[in-house]
Amino acid sequence: MIYGEENIPLKIKRRREVVFLILVGLFLGSLVMLNILGVSRFVDLSHWVGIPKESDITFSLAIGVLPYPVTFLCTDFISEIYGKKRANRVVWIGLLLNIWILIIIWFGGWLEAPETLQADGTLPLEIENGQAVAPHGYAFYTIRSLAFGATIASMIAYITAQFIDVHIFHFFKRLTNGKKLWLRNNGSTLISQLVDSIAVILITHFFASGLPVNDSKPLFWQLIAFILSAYLFKLIVALIDTIPFYIGTHYLKKFLRVEGELLAP
């Protein structure tokens, strides 16, 4: 018996596994996008929140942040329906996936590396007919340079934040005797994503030099702006996803015939 339950129809067991695989697939797919896209581009949304152009503070988001809230929503679904043990296993699989991405990125750049490869891991632009032209492989090595450091930063922040998310989720679940779904969903996500935002920004800058900082402006306030930008985005999305989490949990538990949470072996 997969879940330690008796008299469960085979059709329901298969349904539970399919839903689990879909959630894991969304989780890992979002994680891959996060690590590959990473800090390859920042979008300045300062004018959206009323920050003037001449201000030292900006509201900028790395596009790699965009799929990140989905990972926390998926682990919350898995925690709620399949239990803490399975949620923690998924987090470990995500860590192994991060390592696999690093291996492929490293090997792809090492294999017959161009002689013109620079110390920072990128290729210089070539001059043709008086114009700067990107050589073959330029895009890969630029993404590789940014993604390699950002993925290491992401790994450290990810493993810390995801385990915090799962732990706090079940702490609130025990504290409220399984009630107040909104509290464990939002409480776990908001705390864990604050940890993640701080860790990934600081590591990406000091370890990988992957942030577009302005050397003429104070570094401290620029880092604070990057952290707050990422966290505010995650906070807003976390509050919004309370609705799909409530609706999704209600219908998934009915669809899977689950009371409480499934007991994974």
Features:
7 helices; globular; mainly alpha; 265 residues; Arp2/3 complex 21 kDa subunit ARPC3; two-stranded antiparallel sheet; 5% strand
Explained architecture:
With 265 residues, this protein is mainly alpha-helical. The protein has one domain: Arp2/3 complex 21 kDa subunit ARPC3 (Orthogonal Bundle). It is globular and about 75 Å long. It has a two-stranded antiparallel ribbon with strand order 1-2. A two-stranded antiparallel ribbon has the order 3-4. The chain has 7 helices and 4 strands; from the N terminus they run αββααββαααα.
Lateral arrangement of strands in the main beta sheet: 1-2
Percent in helix:
55-70%
The radius of gyration computed from the alpha-carbon positions, rounded to a whole number of angstroms, is 21 Å
Largest sheet: 2 strands, antiparallel
Helices and strands in order, then pairings?
Layout: H1 10-37, E1 42-44, E2 60-62, H2 68-82, H3 84-110, E3 126-128, E4 131-133, H4 138-175, H5 181-206, H6 219-240, H7 242-256
Antiparallel strand pairs: 1-2, 3-4
Helix pairs in contact: 1-2, 1-3, 2-3, 2-4, 2-7, 3-4, 4-5, 5-6
Summarize the entry for a quick read.
The protein has helices at 10-37, 68-82, 84-110, 138-175, 181-206, 219-240, 242-256; strands at 42-44, 60-62, 126-128, 131-133. It has 265 residues and is mainly alpha-helical. The relative contact order is 0.15.
